[in-house]
Amino acid sequence: MDILLELIIIIFAVALSLFAFQRYQKSTPAFLFTIVWTAQIIVVLLGWSNYLYFRYWGLLFILAGVLCFDLGYQVVAKKTTNTNIYNNKQVYYHSRRCLYVYLGVLLIAFAAVFYSIYSRGFSWRSFFDINSFIEMSYQSSVERYTGDDNEGALAKILGINSYTCPLIGGLMFHYFEKKKKYLSYIAILPNILGGLSQGVKMGIISSIFLWAIGYVVASHLQSKQLKLKLRQVLLISIGAIAFMLLMIVTMMFRYGTLDLDTFYVASGKMISYGLGHLPAFDLWYVGHQENITELTLGGKTIYGITNTLGILTREQGVFTTMYQISPYGDETNVFTAFRFYIEDFGTLGSFVYLFIMGSVCRFFYDRFRELRNVYLNATIMCAIYFYISWSFATSVFAYATYIAMFLYLFVLLKLMFSVKYNREVIQGINN
Question: What is the pTM of this model?
Answer without folding.
Answer: 0.87
